[in-house]
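Input record (Table S2, row 480):
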Amino acid sequence: MHAPTSFSQVKQAIASGSTTLPEQVRTYLRNIEDQAQLNVFLEVYADEAIAEAERIQEKMNQGTAGRLAGMVLGIKDVLCHKDHGLQAGSKILHGFKSQFTASAVQRLLNEDAIIIGRQNCDEFAMGSSNENSAFGPVRNAADPSRVPGGSSGGSAVAVQAGMCTASLGTDTGGSVRQPAAFCGVIGLKPTYARISRYGLAAYASSFDCIGPITNTVEDAALLLEIMAGDDGQDSTVSRKPVPEYSKFIQDKAKAAEPKKIGYLRQGLESESIAPAIRAAMQRSIDLLKEAGHSVEPVDFPFIDYILPTYYILTMAEASSNLSRYDGVRYGYRSPHTTDLLSMYKKSRSEGFGKEVQKRIMLGTFVLSANYYDAYFTKAQRVRRLIQQQTEQMLNKFEFILMPAAPTTAFKIGEKTTDPIAMFLGDVFTVQANVAGVPSIALPTGKDESGLPIGLQVMSKNFSEAELLAFAQHFMSLGSN
Ligand code: GLN
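Output record (glutamine complex):
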């Protein structure tokens, strides 16, 4: 049985008496159980979610409920939730329980959202296919022989398959947008530092962003509005006031006013783009032109440098962030140790998966004294150039369109032996993270095998209000 797909539908169904919040939660729980083979949730909080639903339903009846009463969320297994397990998809955090709740999660709970469980993901959010989880791959509900994308694969499939109203993922280089695209749902990566990272298990701190995965743009706007803003716990979080995104997007006439839009030429013309994605890009461009917008091609001169810059810097940051997992105070400790050093070595070698170990080693290498300038410093310089060029591009065009990924969801196992091919799949998503700008993935139809296609729209720093309004306008043009 399928649940209503958006928050407003859930609220309406409850208000009209056709369901209750506990019943709604039971529907999601049934959907989780019936589709257990998709391997989406690492832990489901069934009793707790039903008890919360009863409590919040009571508040709804009394008219005292928060703004998210009726919203049932799943959260990626990298977000702290007090007294609940957290493993970042890794064996190394075996048995770990959060001692506090991430600010973003707490803000949603304060508004009466319910958390139904924690979701499978690539280990420490490193991956593009969810095949790097210590708990096995997540399967795409559109075709279970295919990947859901990654690293927030469980979070995307949960929304795709009606297991919750929305999910929280994280996006360091595309991990919200690419799985959203592979699963036919919406994924928003906000501006870096728009949402506090307090309580997010770090992968690469200067890139990591929390972002919502939803069925509608309205839900993404509302979740962002509630999560965003200073919390006094993250020295990098922005103090800029948080606009009322959910109100802003109601002005449909404003969103429809003619805009100056660019599309990445390589995103339409490159040989490596699957024909169905090229066709979807062209269709989107045509629709926007018909709606009165100006849409022109743009070339991004540094496109070939974005991926190496991203991977050098994120691996360097990861090698430092992940050094804390040593098996001493919490998590997995190898039983085969003889002394302190062997305890560190064995716990880390047995606790981390192959991909994570590879990145820690490469990250350590690029930070080592002899190679620091050749790799790390150079990549930082190139990052600055990419940021500047991206800014210039976004001064000229309000929005930039590109595919979310060059292909639709690929087969499980298809790219596991070819890491370069796996990395190349991130070519369109990493720019927004290297530059720090917001970007959203929107479903735009299906390919010949019925697999979802995602279009990506990028905009200036802190322009989420305009981006979301435009996203909603675009969706109303009927491209999907
Ligand atoms: N696929 C990218 C990586 O492996 C992005 C991951 C992410 O955004 N967390 O690093």
